[in-house]
Structures are given as C-alpha cells and as structure tokens.
UniProtKB/TrEMBL annotation:
GO terms for biological process: phosphate ion transport. Residues 67-284 form the ABC transmembrane type-1 domain. SUPFAM superfamilies: MetI-like (SSF161098). Pfam families: BPD_transp_1. GO terms for molecular function: phosphate transmembrane transporter activity. Its main location: membrane. It comes from Ferroglobus placidus (strain DSM 10642 / AEDII12DO). It is found in: Cell membrane; Membrane. One of its GO terms (cellular component) is plasma membrane. This is Phosphate transport system permease protein.
Amino acid sequence: MRVKEKIIEISLFSFALMTILITFGIVASLIFETAYFFRHVSPIEFFLGTEWSPTIAPYSFGVLPLVSGTLMVTLGAALIAIPSGLLAAIYLSEYASERVRAILKPALEVLAGIPTVVYGFFAFVYITPFLKKIIPDLAAYNALSASIVVGIMIIPIVASISEDALRAVPKSLREAGFALGASKVRVIWSIVVPSALSGIVASFILGISRAIGETMAVTIAAGRVPRLVNILNPEDWIKPIETMTAAMVEIGLSDVSGESIAYKSLFAIGFTLFIMTFALNAVSNYIKMRFREVYR
C-alpha cells in the first residue's frame, strides 16, 4: 500500500514539475530570442518608436503603435465588462433564486467557452454593421467594434469570479445590516461589496489581462493597421488599428525567414506582452492577499 501511494505521489509531483519546467522553457525562449532581437535593434527604438513596419522597407520596429492599439481595445472592453460583470454578479449572488442561478450561472460560463474567432466574426458581421447605422464614418475594421466584442467576451470572467467573492461573504454580515435597519441595496453596497472587494478587484484585473492577450477576435474586428492612436480622440475609435497580438499573427503568417530580424520581433512583442500581463496578475494577487477578509 505504501509503495502504491509513493508511486502516486511521485507521479503527481512529476506532472507538477513538468508544468513548471514547460513554463520556464517558454519564458526562457522568449528571453533568449528577445535578447537576440535587441542586439540588432535598440531597445530605445523598439519601446519609444512610433512607426511599425518590420516586413516592408523602410523597416521600423517601434512598438508604441501596437501598445496604444492594445490599450485602446482593453480600455473599451473594461468599460463594458467591469460594470456589466459586477452587476450580473450582484444579481446572481443577492437577488436570483437558486433555480434561476442554476440556469444563469452555467449559461454565463458557457460564454467563456465560445471560440474567440466566433466572437470576431460576430463583431464583423453584426456589431460593425449595426454601429455603421449610427456612425456613418465607421470603417469596416475599427477599434470600437473590437472593444465591444472583447468586453462581451470577458464579462463571464468578471461576473463569475465576482459572484464567487460575493457569495463567500458570511450571511451573518448581511443579517447584521438588516438588523440595523439598512435596506437591501444599502447592505449590498455598504457591506457585501466592500467585504468582497479583493476578489472583485482581482476579477477586474484578470479580465483586463484576458483582454490584453486576446488575438483572433481583435484581429478580425479591428484590422491590421499599425498606427499611434489617441484614446481620447473619438475619431481614432472608428478607424482600424493593430494590437500586439494581431502584429504577432501577421508576422507569423508572413513569408519572412525564421532567422530574420522581422521574425525575431515577434518574440520581442511577445516578451513585452508577457511583462504586461505578468505585472497585472502580480497586482491581482497582491490585492487579493492584501485586502482579503478572513471570516471565522
């Protein structure tokens, strides 16, 4: 019996170790290839340059247009997903009956399993034509449609994690608020939501991380036009842009050599994207641990 348990323990440890080694291998390959790229292209030119043209002469490797496009789509998606997801979570946690919740919660989570390419075509076929009736100057590929569809896509992440955080708040806290004469709305916003704040904020950041790393939906809906955009300029929202992930797809599908600087720029973009999402996840974990409420 002990031998059998030891074998199971070693097997489980091996799978856990394999996962860690694969992760380190991916990060190591990103670092190695990015270092090779920076031996030929100045980091200052890459991070501060405003022109991106790795495959067409004159070549330029400024990543700022891609970063600005990524941040534009992420901001638009967050403005849609954060309030919608939080309100959906509050309804599921505080108002919905168990029967309704048993139907809506799985249905909401099913949205997270829909392939992102489907979201992209949904934006291109339905969202963009609808918006064009309201905004005649809207381009076929635009940042606004991409932001909307990515926002819809990350609502399940925000709603599901926030709802779990809200339901983790003890019922006794709610009853204490009712005993003091507070209305249900006041109890929710003054007691329940603040008590679950760490989990709610973590869901926001995880949703934003998901939006930053989105590829297919953004590529289909927003187009592939690398340009430095101003998030505060309404005209930039109705024109095509290119995000970091879309640029990686474009380079990967091009006919450039695997040893060329253009191809190596793919890894530099990936490393930059990795740093951005890693930082957001680190902030999420910090907030979750720093403001976590422990109930007995």
